[in-house]
């Protein structure tokens, strides 16, 4: 995803009062036929600026899958990893009410003010947990970012529920704290 678009999506709750998923749900309930009518609705009825309204409508048309559908699709054929994902999400939700969980086609971004983690079912037997931990050295299970490139600075490979241990929770928490 384009960096500017991702920034816009990340800023959406603060700038518009709702997350992208909430706006898409509102548009799906209205079921507008025309792009311009949906943009006008968001601008006049909800006070959304043109840039955000246009982006929301465009993204709602591109991907009619709900967030839940996106996660289900990610774990199709990898069902044994779904519980690991759910444990990671439950853990992160305890950090604070400011965590935004944003499913995408191949991963789920965890965002505070900035993305601090990424959960990706990498193979049928492994989840890659990407973390943004600037100025933290690679150590133990905390590897370099691998396939995440610049989206994350580090990665932890998780193959079983027992791998979501105190160490993983600590690094998730550190990434969350650094994302202010």
State the main characteristics:
180 residues, alpha+beta, six-stranded antiparallel β-sheet, 46% helix, elongated
Low-confidence stretches: none
As a whole number of angstroms, the C-alpha radius of gyration is 17 Å
Computed structural class: alpha+beta
Largest sheet: spatial strand order? 1-2-3-4-6-5
General description of the model:
- The protein is α+β, with helices and mostly antiparallel strands and 180 residues long.
- It has 2 domains: 3-62; 69-178.
- It contains 7 helices and 6 strands.
- It has helices at residues 3-16, 20-30, 35-46, 50-62, 67-74, 82-93, 166-178; strands at 100-103, 108-111, 115-123, 126-131, 143-144, 154-158.
- It has a 6-stranded antiparallel sheet with strand order 1-2-3-4-6-5.
- Helix 2 packs across helix 4 and helix 3 (35-46) packs across helix 4 (50-62).
- The longest helix is centred in the first third of the chain and has 14 residues, at 3-16.
- The radius of gyration is 17 Å and the shape is elongated.
- The mean pLDDT is 90.
Summarize the structure.
This protein is α+β, with helices and mostly antiparallel strands and 180 residues long. It has helices spanning 3-16, 20-30, 35-46, 50-62, 67-74, 82-93, 166-178; strands spanning 100-103, 108-111, 115-123, 126-131, 143-144, 154-158.
Question: How do the strands and helices of this protein lay out in sequence?
Answer:
Layout (H helix, E strand, L loop, with lengths): L2 H14 L3 H11 L4 H12 L3 H13 L4 H8 L7 H12 L6 E4 L4 E4 L3 E9 L2 E6 L11 E2 L9 E5 L7 H13 L2
Antiparallel strand pairs: 1-2, 2-3, 3-4, 4-6, 5-6
């Amino acid at each position: 995803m384009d960096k500017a678009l991702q920034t816009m999506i990340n800023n959406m709750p603060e700038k518009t009062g709702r997350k992208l998923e909430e706006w898409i749900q509102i548009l799906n309930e209205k079921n507008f036929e025309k792009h311009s009518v949906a943009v006008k609705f968001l601008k006049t009825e909800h006070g959304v600026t043109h840039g955000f309204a246009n982006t929301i409508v465009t993204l709602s048309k591109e991907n009619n899958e709900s967030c839940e559908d996106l996660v289900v699709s990610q774990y199709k054929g990898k069902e044994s990893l779904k519980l690991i994902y759910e444990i990671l999400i439950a853990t992160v939700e305890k950090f604070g009410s400011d965590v935004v969980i944003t499913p995408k086609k191949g991963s789920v971004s965890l965002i505070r003010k900035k993305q601090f983690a990424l959960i990706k079912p990498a193979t049928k037997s492994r989840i890659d947990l990407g973390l943004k931990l600037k100025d933290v050295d690679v150590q133990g299970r905390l590897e370099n970012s691998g396939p995440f490139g610049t989206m994350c600075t580090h990665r932890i490979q998780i193959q079983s529920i027992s791998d979501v241990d105190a160490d993983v929770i600590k690094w998730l928490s550190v990434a969350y704290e650094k994302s202010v």
